[in-house]
Amino acid sequence: MYRREQVGDFLLIVLGITIVYGQRFVLPLGEFFVPIIVFIMFIIIPIWYYLGYVFINPIRFILYVLALLGLILSAGIAFIYFRGTSIFSFLYLVILYIPILFVARDNKRLGLLMKTFQTSMLIAAIIGIIQFLSQFIGITHVDLLSSLLGPYITQLYNFSIRLGFGSGLYKANAIFFLEPSFFSQWLSIAILIEIYFYRRFKNLIVFIPALLFTFSGTGLLVLAVGLIPIIFNFNFWYLFRLSVVFLLFVGLFFLSGYAEVTYSRLEQFDDPNASAYIRFIAPYKLYSEYLRNNPEKIWFGAGPGTVDTDLEGGGEGKNPRALSPLYIKMLYEYGIAGFGFFVFIFSSFFWRTNSILFSVVLWITYSIMGTGLLNPITLYLCYALGMLFINLDKKPLGHEIA
């Protein structure tokens, strides 16, 4: 029994490390490249199940089956009547979410996972800080992973992003993250874990400057939402010390003159070519226009995979017109008939959650800040930190992550 727990714990550590450092790695599957986190997840889950480390949650299983029937109905109609649909997109969706059905038998190992994630993020934060500051002493920014492991590195993201047009400085992505925006989101989650559960100021002193060096607004938005509830849940002295730490780094950041790069991104909400507009404005605007022209497709959608070409557009070497969040992709491709899958996902985030506040943060990261329904990187981050461990005995969370 003890050996089984050791194997299960080892795989949990592997998962915690992979969701941080395995983002950019892919493995070829025919003409497709599948993120390595998917392969690792589908190796870990069967072993855990065999060891009795996890079990299939009956509520999630029922919701998944019902949602699957709706997806099959929508996809079936699309395959028969519409062109440009993708069987791979449909199968990938169905398979990608299977791990969500499995939950840990208890919360005893939640602390192990959290500590693995936080330690991994602490190292990544140090890498990110060194990566950015080293540019000031003449060290040229180089994408090491692409240079060394090109065929096994995804090419779908902007790993190296300049601070601005013509700038010689690059935003921090800590080498292993898909983009600075992903690094910023992961850092925000790590900061909130420290604030919610551990309250270690020494780690915040590393996480906060790393977050600022990403020059990304998505992570700051996640952090801002996550910080609002603590006003009502923590004592004054803790809030005062926390405020001092944040204000110190933010103040230095503004004095450096580089803060303008970050807050100037607020203007991007009006620019159709800017990432903020593409992510937060364009999907809803384009979908509403689509429905006005095709009202009949509200019921069964346009078919799997169509949002990538019809709604988002772009193409090789071009910026997309939109990056569709969870809701838009589900409604556009599967319609109302397939929207039951959204119910399955939403309930998995919040049913018997250990921390409603933390689940809200993860949900925002996944559904709004994430890059779509078929992104396993964000999905499995949220699964590991939020959906894998649930409150089976309805005891308050606390001792499990000490």
Helix and strand topology:
Elements: H1 2-21, E1 26-29, E2 32-35, H2 36-51, E3 54-56, H3 58-81, H4 87-96, E4 102-104, H5 110-133, H6 144-149, H7 180-198, H8 201-212, H9 217-227, H10 236-256, H11 259-263, H12 275-293, H13 306-311, H14 326-334, H15 340-350, H16 356-369, H17 376-387
Antiparallel strand pairs: 1-2, 3-4
Keywords:
mainly alpha; two-stranded antiparallel ribbon
Describe this structure in words.
The chain is built from 17 helices and four strands. The chain is mainly α and 402 residues long. The protein has two domains: 2-108 and 307-401, no CATH class; 111-251, no CATH class. The strands form two sheets. It has a two-stranded antiparallel sheet. It has a two-stranded antiparallel ribbon with strand order 3-4. Helix 1 (2-21) packs parallel to helix 5 (110-133). The protein is globular, with a radius of gyration of 21 Å. The relative contact order is 0.14.
